[in-house]
Specification:
Length: about 300
C-alpha cells in the first residue's frame, strides 16, 4: 500500500477558529486554513509494499500557497516519511533489539489521538506504543507522547510546534543514530528537493557535505518548490530540548534533512524519558536571516506548551 494521509473518509469536523479547521478520520487528521490545506498527521500505521512500517508523522505538509512540500515513501528511500523522528539504533540492556529507521523488529501501535483548538491554534495530541516485534511476548519498549500545535499563518509564514516525549517502558533503553561517521537520526524532514535548494543558518549560507555540519540552532531550507516561486522551511531547535543540537545532516538530492541527536553513540533514556522540542516555520521565501533569528529568539523566549 502506498503511504498517505488516508483521510478521505471524514468522520468529524472541528472548527478551531474562522480560519482554521480540522478534519479527522480513523487514520489521521487534516488541517486547513481559509480553504487551503496546511498539513496532515498520519496516526495509523502504514507500510510500503509490506515493509517500512511508519506511524505518528506529518504528511502531507503544504506551503502557504497549498503546494505539497513533503514526500512519503519515495522510491530512493522508501522508509522516509514527511516530517518524522526516527533512530537506527534501538538498544535494551546494551543489545540491539530493533532498527527504528527502517522499522525492523519494531512496530508502532497508536493508543489515542485528540485534536481540537487551543489558544487560537489547532492542536494534535497523540500517544503511541513502540513494540518489539521479534522479542518474546512483543513487549512495549517506548511510549511516545507527541503534541503538535499549528498556528494561524501570518502574511509571510506559519509556525508549527512539536513536543515529543519518549518514555522508556523497559530498563536500560537507549537510542542512537546511524552507526557510522554520519550518525544521522532524530528529527527529520523529507521534502521534494528543488534544484536550487539552499541552506542558511545564523546569518550564513551553509554548504552541504556527507558528514554532519555544525551551525546555529536553526536551519533554513529554501528553494523553488513551485515553478518560478520560492518558499522555504526553517527548523528551530529549542535549547530546552533534550540534547539540543547544532549538528545538521544536509542533502541536496533525494534525501532527508536532519537535526542530529544523539549521533552515532547511543544515549540512555532516563526513567522520565526525553523531551524533544522544535518549531517548524513554513514561509513564503521572503524571510531574511535576521528575521528568522528574531523568530528563533521569540520561540525560545515565549513557551507555547
Amino acid at each position: 500500500m502506498k503511504a498517505g494521509i488516508g483521510i478521505l473518509m471524514i468522520t468529524s469536523l472541528f472548527a478551531c477558529r474562522p480560519s482554521l479547521s480540522l478534519q479527522r478520520s480513523e487514520t489521521g487528521v487534516l488541517i486547513s486554513e481559509k480553504g487551503k490545506l496546511v498539513m496532515g498527521y498520519q496516526a495509523a500505521p502504514l507500510q510500503i509494499n509490506g515493509a517500512f512500517e511508519r506511524a505518528g508523522y506529518v504528511h502531507p505538509l503544504y506551503n502557504l500557497d497549498g503546494v505539497i512540500l513533503t514526500e512519503d515513501g519515495p522510491a530512493d528511500h522508501p522508509y522516509h516519511r514527511g516530517i518524522y523522528w526516527a533512530w537506527h539504533q534501538v538498544l535494551q540492556g546494551g543489545k540491539s533489539v530493533a532498527d527504528g529507521w527502517v522499522s525492523e523488529g519494531i512496530s508502532f501501535s497508536p493508543l489515542k489521538m485528540n485534536s481540537g483548538k487551543r489558544r487560537g491554534a489547532a492542536y494534535i495530541d497523540a500517544e503511541l506504543r513502540w513494540i518489539l516485534t521479534e522479542a518474546a511476548n512483543q513487549p512495549e519498549i517506548i511510549r511516545e507522547h507527541t503534541a503538535i500545535l499549528v498556528h494561524p499563518a501570518t502574511a509571510h509564514y506559519r509556525a508549527i510546534d512539536f513536543t515529543i516525549r519518549l518514555v522508556p517502558k523497559m530498563d536500560s533503553v537507549a537510542l542512537g543514530g546511524a552507526n557510522d561517521e554520519k550518525g544521522y537520526g532524530g528529527f527529520c524532514l523529507r521534502f521534494a528537493l528543488p534544484s536550487d535548494i539552499s541552506f542558511h543558518s545564523g546569518g550564513h549560507k551553509i554548504a552541504a557535505r556527507e558528514k554532519a555540519v555544525e551551525a546555529a540552532a536553526w536551519m533554513d531550507f529554501s528553494g523553488s518548490f513551485e515553478t518560478g516561486k520560492k518558499s522555504g522551511l526553517t527548523l528551530l531547535v529549542h535549547p530546552e530540548s533534550t540534547g539540543a543540537s547544532t549538528s545538521w545532516i544536509l542533502r541536496e538530492k533525494k534525501s532527508m534533512q536532519n537535526s542530529v541527536f544523539p549521533g552515532r553513540i547511543p544515549r540512555l533514556l532516563p526513567p522520565d524519558g526525553w523531551t524533544l522540542k522544535y518549531r517548524l516555520i513554513v514561509h513564503d521565501g521572503s524571510m531574511s536571516g535576521p528575521q528568522l533569528e528574531r523568530l528563533y529568539q521569540t520561540y525560545i523566549t515565549v513557551s507555547n506548551h
